[in-house]
Known about the structure:
alpha+beta, 179 residues, 4-stranded antiparallel beta sheet, single chain, 4 strands
Amino acid sequence: MEPHPPLEPVLQRHAFADFRWLDPADLVVAEWVRMKCRFGCPHYGRAAACPPNTPQVEACRRFFAEYAHGLIVHFEVPPLSDEARHAWSARTNRALVDLERDVFLAGFPRAFALFTDACHLCETCAPERTACKEPALARPSATGMAVDVFGTARRLGYSIEVLTGPSSPANYFAFLMVD
């Protein structure tokens, strides 16, 4: 997808160096992603911006269909301890919310960020959306919205593999829906 010229200066200010424009129709949305959340993720039912506090898969598909433009943002992260990864995630997610806000202020009121991982904005997350301490800032992850990040990243030309150990650098992807 071609760049969205009015937003290029906003993106440059935020220093997200590795991003690509996408057609939301290229997002791979799948039921199996939700199953992996439900049966395998420690955040399921324990985080206000994670399933089951996110829309059903069909509602996610409808949500993405309402957009004509989006971004995928790639981060290559060196091996980190759990504590350091949590801190990286919190910083990155705050930066994504700041980007979303600036895109909104640039005249795109439907801007909506999807985090790389669980929200991590707070040290401890409330299990219910109504008890969230940062409801204006919390966003779901792409997987929390049933996006197959591996399939989508590959479809958009990124290389991504399953990590086989804690000493490998990790590829994380965030998304920003824009219209």
